[in-house]
Design brief:
The termini are far apart. By secondary structure, this protein is α+β, with helices and mostly antiparallel strands. Strands 10, 12, 13, 16, 17, 18, 19, 20 and 21 form a 9-stranded mixed beta sheet that branches. An 8-stranded mixed beta sheet has the order 3-4-2-1-5-6-8-7, sandwiched between helices. It folds into 2 domains: 246 residues, Rossmann fold (3-Layer(aba) Sandwich), CATH 3.40.50.150; 342 residues, 6 Propeller (Neuraminidase), CATH 2.120.10. Strand 16 and strand 17 form a beta hairpin. It is elongated and about 85 Å long. The chain has 15 helices and 39 strands. Pathway: tRNA modification; wybutosine-tRNA(Phe) biosynthesis. InterPro entries: Gal_Oxase/kelch_b-propeller (IPR011043), Kelch-typ_b-propeller (IPR015915), Ppm1/Ppm2/Tcmp (IPR007213), SAM-dependent_MTases_sf (IPR029063). Pfam families: Beta-prop_TYW4, LCM. Its EC number is 2.1.1.290, 2.3.1.231.
């Protein structure tokens, strides 16, 4: 009857949970093979590793580093005790015991691992037939106990369902777990798959069962923002729903949970905080240099959706916390939320899907005509670097999308990402920089020529021509995630190419002035404090100069500075734009200026309160106000990074095109349609 159906469902779900554990172990193994951390035992436990992407490697590196940090801190702080214990819940094929044993850190410590019975039986069999593993374990011969699949002098492997708490408690007692010995309990992406009543009971049991205990928890959070929705959907499709998220959606809810279940001390931080605050800077640089990498947004979003928590009860003051207390992280400035703006999906008449993309560029080539080029997206049902150009043209209140034919296609176009397109007239634009891969960015510059457009007609073709560059201008073209902005000096028009990154430099701080129309590199004196190197910033023309806002620095930390490059009698001067409150650091946003107001749109920041919406900065008073974007009318998560935006000043309409990215191992999300925001209310009331 019903009991049989429930049991079959539980068995099915547990099988799906085990498969996620197996995938996680493979990702850890791949990261170890690439040198992110040392772990020669993962290959022995898992066999030949399958290569994962650099983004996945980074994600599993910071996870492994957080667990190791807390485990080794526990062992260090309890070394004066004659005996200690580690209890790893849902350990799967984890190699923690073997690494600690190999490092001679288990002289006084016994490691207990618990997982589903069939998992531990497989692991026990693997240990017995692998000489290098079995040699580290001194077999104690306690397999006669039904739940103990393997027993060594300092290692116990138990097969018990964690939701069956009475059975778990008895099995651990029979295996020798001592409630009076200082104990570290580890739950690494385990409790979230359990019913909340069961995981809560397990947390409370640990607090009550042991006299001196620490708890280490690593899990997901923030389920309701766009990245969180994609993350939840991924696990639901695997039939491994993240059950804890609805009741415990953030760090504060988890801290309160442990406090209510009997824990006296608790410290919790997201993985951006852990990476920044707990990993030495030289180690950060080592990891950042291991592989060509250009998925900063998804890396930081992944880290903002996972946390590490340590809780303790009845531990000596010198033993705790295993993590530093981070109640007010240094990068979280105040937010002054002034309201929200509704997002509406544009009704686009189109037979093409080419606007589902990220890392592209959109430019207004004449009123109501927008040209979108490059990026990575979806075309003809497959994900690829975008070869075709697309135009959006507004006619009778509706947008039409068209694919534009490229005449004389130049191989140097090469389907580039993170380039810029500057319109010099209604029939001529200049493409600067971009990359095909993080190791190939020497793409130069291209002219885009399109016929002059009359009325509501759209350009039928675009002709590409390479730009012959002086050697001095080559460096300006060999970059991506930069900005190219029109400035005026002594009545002459120049393009100011600034910042970005290259295949060698993680964040450039140089610039060049390109004289229009011949695109010659011109030396113009610039004085004042030079901004630190950055990429993925925004740049807007203003009063003949340029406003630079935010960006990502060389250490991969978001920047909150705003600079104005202002024309002077003899050249230009850098000056800082102060805001109140200070701007929350961000990058991968877009920006527009209207009536002495700077609007920053979307992007990525480390603030936990909400995702970036629109920030309006009064360039006269410095007042900085944040507005959330209300996306409840959209049927899909609105990801506002790696997007483009075009501001139509007459209608005070902001059009958001594309955006999204590869969401860690959860799949690629691309905003399917352009989105319209009416900014009339905030531009008149601000």
């Amino acid at each position: 009857g019903a009991r049989f159906v429930r049991r079959r469902h539980a068995v099915f779900v547990s099988r799906q949970v085990r498969s996620t554990g197996s995938s996680s172990a493979v990702s850890k193994c791949s990261a170890a093979e690439r040198g992110y951390f040392r772990d020669r035992f993962l290959r022995l436990l898992l066999g030949r590793p399958r290569r994962r992407a650099p983004l996945v490697h980074r994600g599993y590196y910071v996870r492994a580093r957080a667990v190791d940090h807390c485990v080794q801190d526990f062992l260090l702080k309890t070394q004066s005790h004659p005996r200690t214990q580690i209890l790893s819940l849902g350990a799967g094929f984890d190699s923690l015991y073997f690494r600690l044993k190999d490092m001679s850190l288990l002289h006084r410590t016994v490691v207990y691992e618990v997982d589903f019975p069939n998992v531990v039986c497989q692991k026990a069999a693997l240990i017995r037939r692998t000489e290098e593993l079995s040699a580290l374990v001194e077999v104690a011969g306690a397999e006669g106990i039904v739940t103990t699949a393997f027993s060594g002098k300092d290692y116990r492997l138990l097969g018990v369902d964690l939701s069956e708490l009475p059975k778990l408690s008895i099995a651990l007692e029979e295996a020798g777990l001592d409630s009076e010995v200082p104990t570290l309990v580890i739950a690494e992406v385990v409790l979230t798959y359990m019913e909340n009543s069961s995981s809560d009971a397990l947390i409370q049991w640990a607090a009550e069962h042991f006299s001196h205990v620490c708890f280490l928890l690593y899990e997901q959070m923030h389920p309701e923002d766009p990245f969180g929705r994609v993350m939840q959907q991924h696990f639901s499709q695997l039939n491994s729903a993240l059950r804890s998220l609805s009741q415990y959606p953030d760090c504060e809810a988890q801290r309160k949970r442990f406090s209510e279940k009997g824990w006296t001390e608790c410290s919790v931080m997201d993985m951006n905080e852990f990476f920044t605050c707990c990993i030495p800077e030289d180690e950060q640089r080592r990891v950042q240099a291991l592989e060509p990498f250009d998925e900063y947004e998804e890396w930081h979003l992944k880290c903002s959706h996972y946390f590490v928590l340590t809780a303790s009860k009845e531990m000596e003051p010198s033993w705790t916390p295993l993590l530093p207390n981070m109640t007010v992280p240094h990068h979280r400035g105040p937010l002054r939320l002034a309201g929200s703006i509704s997002a509406l999906a544009c009704a686009v008449q189109s037979e093409v899907s080419g606007l589902r993309r990220y890392g592209h560029h959109s430019a207004l080539i004449k009123p109501n005509v927008i040209l979108t080029t490059g990026g990575f997206g979806e075309e003809n049902g497959r994900h690829c670097r975008m070869r075709n150009f697309h135009v959006l043209i507004k006619c009778a209140g509706y947008w039409k999308a068209r694919c534009v034919k490229k005449e004389n296609p130049d191989k140097r176009w090469d389907e580039r990402l993170h380039h810029t397109v500057s319109c010099l007239s209604d029939s001529l634009a200049l493409v600067v920089g971009g990359r095909t891969s993080p190791s190939n960015a020497a793409l130069g510059m291209l002219w885009l020529r399109f016929p002059k457009i009359c009325g509501d007609s759209d350009p039928s073709d675009v002709t590409m021509e390479p730009v012959s560059l002086q050697p001095a201008a080559e460096s300006g073209a060999s970059r991506w995630r930069h900005s190219t902005t029109e400035v005026i000096f002594k009545g002459e028009k120049y393009l100011f190419v600034y910042g970005g990154r290259s295949a060698v430099q993680p964040a450039l701080r140089d610039w060049c002035f390109l004289h229009v129309p011949e695109i010659s590199c011109t030396t113009i004196p610039v004085v004042g404090p030079v901004p630190e190197g950055r990429h993925s910033h925004s740049a807007c023309s203003w009063k003949g100069g340029v406003l630079i806002a935010g960006g990502l620095g060389a250490s991969e930390q978001p920047l909150g500075s705003i600079f104005l490059l202002r024309e002077t009698e003899h050249g230009f001067r850098w000056q800082t734009v102060e805001t109140r409150p200070p701007l929350v650091p961000r990058y991968s946003h877009t920006a527009h200026v209207h009536d002495e107001k700077l609007m920053l749109v979307g992007g990525v920041w480390f603030h936990s309160l909400c995702v970036p919406g629109i920030t309006v900065i009064d360039l006269v008073t410095g007042l900085c106000l944040d507005y959330t974007i209300n996306a409840e009318h959209l049927e899909w998560p609105l990801m506002l990074h790696n997007h483009s935006s075009v501001f139509l000043p007459d209608e005070k309409e902001l059009l958001l095109i594309g955006g999204g990215g590869n969401c860690f191992s959860f799949g690629t999300h691309l905003n399917p349609n352009p989105v319209s925001l009416n900014l009339s209310s905030i531009l008149t009331s601000h």
